[in-house]
Amino acid sequence: MNEVNPLNKTVSSNYIQQHLANERTYLAWIRTSIAIIGIGFLMTNIHFTFLSKLSDMADAITTITGIVSIFSGIGIVLFSTYDYIKKTKQIDTQTFKPSKHIVIFLSIIILVLILGFTFYFFLII
């Protein structure tokens, strides 16, 4: 009774595997942004709960790292959403080009956060 009419196929249905892979990639970016925000919250929470008496510099590094992680997570969500929509259109029009910008953006963010964490941990030791 629920037969699929081949005349009602959409352009996107021709590229189902590519669209599903695009969605999985988008969800991976979302998980990454949640993890980055969570790490920033965790570091800030642990510092100000247990180690806030260390120094003003440690407080500043912790605050800056927390703020950077929150804004980085938000930026990743926005950038990955834009990239997902762009890739969806490119898949349907068969003009797909891999994006290097989001990878470079995320790599720089991760590097900055790792440097902040490293500097903080050397400061508290």
From TrEMBL:
Cellular localization per UniProt: Cell membrane
Give all residue intervals belonging to the DUF202 domain: 18-88
Q: Which GO terms describe its cellular component?
A: plasma membrane
Question: In terms of one coarse class, where is the protein primarily found?
Answer: membrane
Query: Which sequence ranges are marked TM in the entry?
Result: 26-48, 60-82, 102-123
What's in the keyword line of the UniProt record? Cell membrane, Membrane, Transmembrane, Transmembrane helix
Membrane topology of this protein: Multi-pass membrane protein
Q: What is this protein called?
A: DUF202 domain-containing protein
User: From which lineage does this chain's organism come?
Assistant: Bacteria, Bacillati, Bacillota, Bacilli, Bacillales
